[in-house]
Amino acid sequence: MSRIATGICAAIAIAAGGYWLTQSNSTPSNPLVGSAEAQQTDLDTSTIIEMVQGSADAPVEIVEYASYTCPHCATFHQGTYKELKKNYIDTGKVKFTYREVYFDKYGLWASMVARCGGPEKFFGISDLIYKDQSKWTRAGGPAEIVDELRKIGRLAGISNDQLDACLQDGTRAQTLVVWYQENAERDDIRATPSFIVNGKKVDNQSYEEFKKLIDAELGS
Question: Cross-referenced InterPro entries, in alphabetical order (predicted)?
Answer without folding.
Answer: Thioredoxin-like_fold, Thioredoxin-like_sf
